[in-house]
Design a protein that fits this description.
Thioredoxin-like_sf, Glutaredoxin, 39% helix, Thioredoxin domain-containing protein, signal, 5-stranded mixed β-sheet, protein disulfide isomerase activity, Thioredoxin_CS
Length: 417
């Protein structure tokens, strides 16, 4: 009986969120949205009742709302917006797919998009990290005290790890290759990473063209906002002042150093010490890269788009496009899966799998217009309109399921965003 009860509870939770009668999260509309946000921090789910992913998320969202909305600290409220009844509100907040989750700070008119896993533990970790500074003074001071004990003594000027400021940041990263840690002193994950980041800087101090640095986002928030830092620590690879890629891998010294070697096309010190050059997958133009000389694109099922044929190609049916750079490590890892995806849907006339090289001069304006902020970026278009960005796992099964969901949704007549 207990098992049946659990199933019934789950069914009720799914039905209530889908049917607009959820009583745990706050139902937000155009009439009360800004008023509610003026009164508290808000974590909001923008959804559509027919969306399968929304239905799957419903019980977790209801549980989160039950815990957070009744919490004594009142740090954050959990809300929801039905985009089928408040479409203008969803358009105003750039909702391009369902569900979209955004955190709004008290009084703010814009939110921070949540990009992590959709489970209770990750939601709570995200909220605690983002809103730690908004808790009680007693809790905040305790956190700062603990972090202060864990952070190494501030480095002397001779350290290869550069502490950047508002006055030095732009000039420092304007030329060359940079691996930058954006952090907050109160952040526990930042504290744990601190000694490893120092070690990484020291191990690379003899690399002439690579610099490891850090910047405190609690002191220099405008810079962190410009680089779209939405959580701490954020590790960005920057070349000649431009954000190239966000690092999302393991944070051990070996993994971080391997990533630097890959992005830089090998390390001079490794070659001098006899470790050998970086593998082919880490080399810059001229090696075996996606779209490089070693690839026979005549055999590729993926459609290579340029600025001149982009609009025409996406004008009809569903088109999923990967925006990439040939030197990008994550792009290289995705390349064979992208080919498999194209082969898997090759027999369908209603879906196209394509790619755009954003390093080609004639494509740079196109990538800017499409709001490509990192590589690879995957957008799905329907009949010439951008529908959504893909944030899921990059396995063949996950990508195929994502594409077919939108193909089948179009066939069923859903008016998806």
């Amino acid at each position: 009986m207990a098992g049946i009860g659990a199933v019934l509870v789950l069914a009720v939770l799914v039905a209530t969120v889908s049917g607009h009668s959820d009583t745990t999260s706050v139902h937000l509309t155009k009439d009360n949205f800004q008023t509610e946000l003026d009164g508290n921090n808000y974590f909001v789910m923008f959804y559509a009742p027919w969306c399968d992913y929304c239905k799957k998320l419903a019980p977790t969202w209801a549980t989160l709302a039950e815990v957070r909305n009744g919490a004594p600290d009142g740090l954050v409220s959990i809300g929801r917006v039905d985009c089928t009844t408040d479409g203008d509100l969803c358009t105003q907040h750039d909702v391009t797919g369902y569900p979209m989750l955004k955190l709004f700070r008290k009084g703010s008119a814009s939110g921070v998009k949540y990009r992590g896993r959709r489970d209770l533990a990750e939601f709570n970790a995200f909220l605690d990290e983002q809103l730690a500074g908004g808790g009680s003074a007693e809790v905040d001071e305790t956190e700062r005290e603990q972090d202060a004990d864990g952070i190494p003594t501030p480095p002397t000027p001779a350290t290869p790890l550069t502490e950047l400021t508002e006055d030095t940041f732009a000039k420092h990263v304007s030329a060359g290759k940079h691996f930058v840690k954006f952090y907050a002193p109160w952040c526990g994950h930042c504290t744990k990473l601190a000694p490893t980041w120092e070690e990484l800087a020291r191990s690379l101090e003899h690399e002439r063209d690579i610099r490891v640095s850090k910047i405190d986002c609690t002191q220099y928030r405008p810079i962190c906002t410009d680089f779209e830092v939405k959580g701490y620590p954020t590790l960005l690879w920057i070349e000649d002042g431009k954000k190239i890629e966000k690092y999302t891998g393991p944070r051990t010294h070996a993994d971080l150093k391997q990533y630097v070697a890959k992005m830089a096309g090998g390390l001079q010190q490794q070659q001098q010490e006899g470790e050998g050059a970086a593998p082919d997958s880490a080399k810059p133009a001229g090696a075996t890269l996606e779209g490089g000389a070693d690839r026979d694109d005549n055999r590729s099922v993926v459609v290579q788009l340029t600025d001149s044929d982009f609009a025409g190609t996406i004008a009809h049916g569903v088109t999923v496009v990967k925006f990439y750079a040939p030197w990008c490590g994550h792009c290289m890892r995705l390349a064979p899966t992208w080919e498999q995806l194209a082969e898997k849907v090759a027999g369908r006339g209603d879906v196209t799998v394509a790619k755009v090289d954003c390093t080609v001069d004639t494509n740079k304006e196109l990538c800017g217009e499409q709001e490509v902020n990192g590589y690879p970026t995957v957008f799905l278009y329907r009949d010439g309109e951008k529908v959504t960005e893909y944030y899921g796992h990059r396995s063949l099964d996950d990508l195929h399921a994502f594409v077919m969901q939108h193909v089948d949704g179009a066939a069923a007549g859903h008016d998806e965003l």
